[in-house]
Amino acid sequence: MAVVQQEISHPTRDELELSAVLHALSDPVRLKIVAALASEAEQSCASFDVPVTKSTCTHHFKVLREAGVIRQRQEGTSRLNTLRRDDLEARFPGLLDSVLRAA
Amino acid sequence: MAVVQQEISHPTRDELELSAVLHALSDPVRLKIVAALASEAEQSCASFDVPVTKSTCTHHFKVLREAGVIRQRQEGTSRLNTLRRDDLEARFPGLLDSVLRAA
DNA sequence: GACGTTGTACGATGATTGCCGTACCTTATC
DNA sequence: GATAAGGTACGGCAATCATCGTACAACGTC
Fold it and tell me: Global pTM?
């Protein structure tokens, strides 16, 4: 049956909000995810070593995506994640780097 | 009557935690306070133009202080606030500047 | 001493958060 | 078609959060 692929919505570069980004980065689990994404380009959700269940993981990825920190795209059954380095750098220069350096 | 001046406790530089700092900075009211502190050295709590009541303000200053973002010292009846620029820069180089630039 | 100012302490409340389990969808493989 | 793997959706729960009002403490000033 033909099910329309549901859009994965992301904020545009202009829509990024500093407080939302800072809040997204203020959780240790999410920070760990972001750090892992920073060192290895594109990774599926299952490839992260975090001490939470699948459903909690989905929640954290949603927070990161809606804050504009990561981009997700569907690839078969898995969802591939990338850091939105360029967009973050354009809106908040130096922020991501300083957070990653401190993490 | 001799009441001992209660200590205002601050985390040491080594005790600063990235997630706590990011969380403290992720609230719009607190971000506004920090931005105001960045542009004018030492200010009393009452000098900030934020849309919340006194008691909420006390709460925000407490969050900022306990995260190590600001330092408070008593001066008569008022409490003077300063940004802990040096400590933040030492532990999380570039972080505060990038946040302030983006705010 | 009586006020006024500055700020804290202590609830209370409603919203958000982080976490989980269960059920389910989609794709791939046997 | 049955099963397995990767994820999401939904509902629930306990903890935290941002906000407020009221009461109160410390210090100046009239």
Answer: 0.90
